[in-house]
Amino acid sequence: MDRRNRAPLVDSSACLCRLDKSSAAAARRFPLPKGCVEPSLRASIHPLKPKASPRQGGGGGDRSSRAAGQCPLLPGLPDDLAIACLTRVPRADHWKLRLVCRRWQSLLAGNYFYGLRRRLGLAEPWLYAVRRDSRDGRVSWDALDPSAAGASWRALPPVPREYAGADGFGCAALGGCHLYLLGGRDPRRGGAMRRVVFYSARSNRWHRAPDMLRRRHCFGAAVIGNRLYVAGGESGGGSGGIKSAEAFDPAKNRWSIVADMAAAMVPFVGAVHGGRWYLKGIGAGQQVVSQVYSPEADAWSVVLDGMVTGWRSPSACLDGRLYAADCKDGCRIKAYDEAAGEWNACVDSKQHRGSSQAVEAAAIVALDGRLCVVRNDMSVSAVNVAAGTGKEQWETLVGKSHAKNFVTDILSNIAGRGRAKNTILHCQVLEA
């Protein structure tokens, strides 16, 4: 494997409960919690570089370890109270904490710190957007802290090289803090890939994960019950779609085959609702196909009910209810009524931006009990659908003014200003 294409590897799964027993001072580094929260994900399938062992008989390493073990996290406070203080520091300032000393850096590099934040209800969700530049086709990604005053997108370091120019790859959030990129078309060789990488919001690093069992691109991906599922798509053989599906179990760190789809398809929209995975796409005969997967029965079935009728826009599930965009700019939201078996208008902002590609709603995600509409121009609008109807529920987190009317929208399209500079490929929410 080309070392230049590897994602950086770090040991982000090292829990502070698992201290090195070979070091007498290791047990004094941090207090051992009674209920350590460890995610079921492994940081990497590759072995890490072995740590240099202390020299035998020198005694210098023992004295330095003893001194480091006696240094408190915060002078004048026991370590458990110091950790209680540090867990309440806003997530945006965690990079500063890592620069204070090695003990603070080790604390924030383990799972115990962020597991404690989640247990205490202090974990902060951020929105991550993977986008493609329309000018050079490069893939990049940005993060948004919705709680910050004057929130704005922050450009992040480059994605792994194999995905910098990839196309048709999948994306999913697993474990609440890991962003997975899967498969896609290799930008150098042109064929479909099996590669899987993931980003940890806790360690702020990219890692490798086990490759998928089959090469695929333009496929569907979803998370159900802490398992990652992929299905359909194309394998690059010119077959016009594949039926195979597989699932990744983070506890076992491996992929396994699940039941084949009822029909081969290339999905263009999907959603998890009621513990089942719905997919809608183009079948082998260029006809529209809708299917649903039940993990409990491990079976696919064709769907012909009112849910898939007219369902072509981005969607998200919030509080057990499925919502989707009802217009091109996402300023009108509809909800699916299971009892009636149809989609109903839910909330309308009454401030539509137009129909150009730049303002097209690329994704809808659930964030902090609200629905967030993310558009290709990187503008984000949030709405509280549980409060009723009315434009006062809408809030612009990031974006431009709504002042554009129908005439200016047409003039912008004629002048070429309606074309999007970026195309949002995926949006996910990660907590840390």
TrEMBL record:
Keywords: Kelch repeat, Repeat. CDD domains: F-box_AtAFR-like. SMART domains: Kelch (SM00612). InterPro entries: F-box-like_dom_sf, F-box_dom, Kelch-typ_b-propeller, Kelch_1. It comes from the Eukaryota. Residues 47-69 are annotated as: Disordered. The keyword rRNA-binding does not apply. PANTHER family: OS02G0202900 PROTEIN. This is F-box domain-containing protein. The lineage of its organism: Eukaryota, Viridiplantae, Streptophyta, Embryophyta, Tracheophyta.
